[in-house]
């Protein structure tokens, strides 16, 4: 446990060094600049979409940026020959960046809405959504040498993760979309601001599906890390 705590402290220092904390503050300022001028009656409509967009920026791009910084400085490959386990490495990233995403989400909506929304639903949506975004981004970025190589292929995964917006907007409502791990977080954001209503079964699906995908994505992340970082370093 002490090793994990030390790894998390190191991860926080690296995020500060790479400028992620400052980028998060800038992101919050941009979203507030978008939300505050919107008439009060429409802010509840915009808030779920803003929170979803914030997940894409912070979770999806920050962990990839962290990974490529580590590759560029060769620190990632140095970890291969240390006692640090992959589990501690990835958990440190997931915990710190999920926490940053949650803090940023509330920093965006509290000045605009106060506490006039369902706080637990926003919290659940932010945590489950961040975990999925982080792991998809990490797994897709590991095989690439630089961020410029990864940007174009990443658009496929971003497009797939954005498909629930079609359901949310009412253009295509189908139960199969609940299998997409970002569907649940988006619907919880909408329910938190009174834009949609969720039954007990729907809410359970919104929470459980992303959590199941988190477990699957952790396995995938470990395998691609072993293949492209651990095995790749040996060659």
Automatic annotation (TrEMBL):
It comes from the Bacteria. Keywords: Membrane, Transmembrane, Transmembrane helix. It comes from Nocardiopsis sediminis. The chain crosses the membrane at residues 20-38, 45-69, 89-109, 121-144, 150-169, 202-221. This is Fluoroquinolone transporter permease.
